[in-house]
Amino acid sequence: MNRFEQTSIWQKTLGKQLEPDIHEKERDFLRVEFESFRERAKLLAAEIASVLPGFTVHDITHIDALWETAELVMQNDFEITPAEAFVLGGTFLIHDLGMGLASFPFGVEELKKEAIWKDTIASLLKEKLNRPIKETDYLNLDNETEKIATENVLRLLHAKHAEKLALISWKNKDNKDIYLIENTELRESYGSIIGLIAHSHWWTIDELVIKLPRTLGAPGIFPQNWTVDAVKLACILRIADATQIDDRRAPSFLRTIRKPSNYSDMHWNFQQKLYQPRLERNRLVYTSKSPFKIDEVESWWICNDTLQMIDNELKDVDSLLVDTNRQRLKAIGIASIEDPKRLSKLIAVEGWQPIDTKIKVTNVAKLVGSLGGKQLYGDNSIVPLRELIQNASDAIRARRILENEKPEFGNIIVRFGKDEYGQFIEVEDNGIGMSPKVLTGPFLDFGESFWGTSLMHEELPGLESKGFSSTGKYGIGFFSVFMWGEKVSVSSKRFENGRDSTLVLEFNKGASSRPILRKAGDTEVMKDGGTRIRVWLSNSRILDKLLERYDRRQNRITISELIESLCPSIDCNIILEEKSRSKKIIEANDWMTLPPLFFLKRIIGESYYNELGKSEKQLLTKLSKNLTLLKDNDTIVGRLALYKTEDKIEERFSFEGKVTVGGMSSSGLTNLLGILVGKSDRASRDIGVPIATSTTIKDWATNQADLLFKMKLNGNTQIECASVIRSLEGNTSKLKIANHKNGFINYQETKTLISETNYDEYLVVQDAAISNYERDNNCKISYYDNVIWVDTGIPGILQTRNSDHWIDWPEINTTDRFQSRSLEGLITEAFSKVWGKKISSILKISDESSDKKSYEGSVGTVDGKEAIIDHLDIIRKVKK
Question: Where does the pLDDT of residue 359 fall: very low under 50, low under 70, confident under 90, or very high at 90 and above?
Answer without folding.
Answer: very low
